[in-house]
Amino acid sequence: MSWAAIIGQPLAVRLFQKAVATDSLSHAYLLVGPDGVGKRTVAMELARVLACARPTPDGACGACSGCAKLAASPPTHPDLILIQPDGRMIKTDQMRALQTEMYVRPGEARFRVAIIDGADKLNAEAGNRVLKLLEEPPDYAIFLLLAENLASVLPTILSRCQVVHFPPLSPEDVAAAVQRQLGLDAQQARLFAALSGGSIGRAVAMAQNPEVAARREATYSLIDKIDAIDDFSLLGYSETLEKEKETIDPWLEMLLLWLRDGFVLAQAGVERLIVNGDRLPAVRSLANRYGAEGLAAMIDVVSDTRGRLQRNANFRLALDLMLIRLGEIARHAGRL
Ligand SMILES: [Zn+2]
Asked: Residue 58 C-alpha to ligand 1 middle, in angstroms?
């Protein structure tokens, strides 16, 4: 790994590169952004650079003993302390141990680095202990706090840190990363990137989850046949969906992706914008039968239902209504 190999976070990378080059690192940084966008990768690269005997502007050398100890899994370098939630929260005992460890001078490197992955998951006492450390940091200490949710970080901690934002990645960046990590082809990588919300972590998890592939087939099969299913059977379908209550949001998202693909093809005819590019004939069939107007109306119906369910609307009622309306639109579009 080097700075240049980090995907999609040029601002954060430049900030740390510059701070290292000009020897102006702060004692505490708060890296904030959704899960899976590179916070931990950037924090680890900074730890590597700080432990490396021969760092270059591009990053750690990868060959010295400091680099080797950080490349081990888990890292064995004595001057890096990695903290993650124990269960759902970071516990007081973990922070008590950190307090002791951080007041020991670094043994091998110039700095002692603590990565606290879950600064938004500190209980009150653990938070106070972190605050004590941040208020009087030893001169060799660097604290890298990672959080998904800025609003859940104690304001007193926030005020002691330099905040570094990690925005969601572009679909292209996610696709490139997934392709590299899992060896997928470009089409598959684009599909998972489109569903990932800008998170490499989510895209990788979906690519490895067989339920996602099953959901993709099920949603296509429904929308493909919906113009031929009578209302009574549609209500039966919504009953079977009740079993998927927990995963209804990704289910609806997948359905939207098919509709969106069909719409893009019907409206603009641009094949390279199709996310389900490996299933082009299937997408073309939707585009031809339902047309841009029909597909746009269906997208509205599904988006609307998704929003209602997120606001805790009655599950069966919302889905019944959605399926009946989709059926109506599909049959009407077929008659045009
Ligand atoms: Zn090195």
From this structure: 12
Residue found by looking up tokens 């927990």 in the block: 246
Residue 37, in any domain of the structure: yes
Instruction: Give residue 54 CA to ligand 1 midpoint distance, Å.
Output: 5
Pick from 198, 221, 183: which is nearest to 39 by CA? 198
Distance CA 220, CA 192 (A): 16
| Residue 197 forms part of a structural domain | no
Q: How far is the CA of 21 from the centre of ligand 1 (A)?
A: 16
d(C-alpha 101, C-alpha 81), whole Å = 8
> How many domains, in total, are found in the chain?
2
Q: Distance, CA 66 to ligand 1 centroid (Å)? A: 6
**In this structure, what CATH number is given to the domain that contains residue 157?**
3.40.50.300
Q: Is 305 within the bounds of a domain?
A: yes
Residue 112 Cα to ligand 1 middle (Å): 16
pLDDT surpasses 60 at 336: no
- Ligand 1 centroid–CA 72 distance in Å is 13
The 3-state DSSP class for residue 147 equals: strand
Domain span holding position 157: 3-165
How much is the mean pLDDT over the chain?
Answer: 92
What would the pLDDT profile of 67-82 be if each residue is shown by its tens digit? 999 888 888 898 999 9
pLDDT value of residue 72: 85
Residue 180 lies in a domain: no
How many A from CA of 37 to the centre of ligand 1?
Answer: 25
Query: Are residues 160 and 226 part of one domain?
Result: no
Q: What's residue 7's pLDDT?
A: 85
**What is the pLDDT, as a whole number, of residue 196?**
86
Note whether 217 and 272 are same-domain residues.
yes
**Selection from 274, 226, 227, 218 nearest residue 250 by Cα:** 218
Asked if 161 and 238 sit in the same domain, the reply is no
Whether residue 50 contacts residue 70, with contact meaning beta carbons closer than 8 Å, is answered with no
CATH, residue 274: 1.20.272.10
- Alpha carbon of 53 to ligand 1 centroid (Å): 5
Q: How confident is the model at residue 246 (pLDDT cuts 50, 70, 90)?
A: confident
